[in-house]
Amino acid sequence: MAYRFPINAMPNSWSMQDLSDMPRVSKCAKCYVFSTSFAVWIASGVACCLAVWQLISNSANYQSVSAALTDPFFLLLAFCSTVLFLSTFACTGSLRDLPCCLRFFAISVIFLALCQLVATSLLLGCRLSDSFCSKLLPWQQAVINATNSTMVREKIFTNASVWLLEVAQAKVGCCGVAGPTAYRDWYVMDTVYSCDAANTLPTRCSIPASCCRAESLASNPNCGRSLGANASAKIFTDGCLTATGSWLLSNAWLVVGASAAWLFVQLLGACLS
């Protein structure tokens, strides 16, 4: 005869009364956390694959470790890897009902949301107060100068990063990386525009057409050549980092609204976790 485990010998943690008293997780909350986390997981995974592919393709162009670490695609890989790691915890925790994974995800999201809130507050404070913005200007300029000097000195500009920079120049209205005379970065970034004596191409000491102002480009497709002293009249001379900072400052309320919407999505996912 098969032995039957007595009901009264069942541990309290296994009793039906205790199981019925356990809090139930809403299916809507689980579906929301899983669906949003899975979508972010897919997007960050694809971005990581693209970044790794670009880093492998450009590995021969890196002259030092710092050159690889300052590559925009390495920064993209670091960011997307962090997002992929956190979204994996969220997906696993919501599917398997693992409180430890969900708590870790919630704490991490709250920390990132606080960092985002601080950055948005600094931007808004700079928009509302010129004196506050003047206090941040030296720090901002130091970061821009350090980034610009490292990128230009290490010559980490690859075909993909040059293409991204040209797209940014056409959209934002800038030229080069950073600084008031950043258009000269192209003399170092691309051998086609180099001012070296060995460069005998017609594009020597010139810049791409994406740096030209609309009126100059319409009248002269080769407006990037023979700039002379009045370069600012024909091209955008500010670097893209400088121009992006100016755009964020002038559109601060739009950025704050978008940041608040994304902050709400983050905190909602953290609370439901």
UniProtKB/TrEMBL annotation:
Q: Which GO cellular component terms are attached?
A: plasma membrane
Has UniProt tagged this entry with the keyword Transmembrane? yes
Q: Does the keyword Transmembrane helix apply?
A: yes
Which topology term describes how it sits in the membrane? Multi-pass membrane protein
Q: Where are the transmembrane segments?
A: 31-53, 73-92, 104-124
- Taxonomically, which superkingdom? Eukaryota
**What is the first-listed, main subcellular location in coarse terms?**
membrane
Record's subcellular location: Membrane
State the UniProt keywords alphabetically.
Answer: Membrane, Transmembrane, Transmembrane helix
- What is the protein name stated in its UniProt record? Tetraspanin
Q: Which organism is it from?
A: Macrostomum lignano
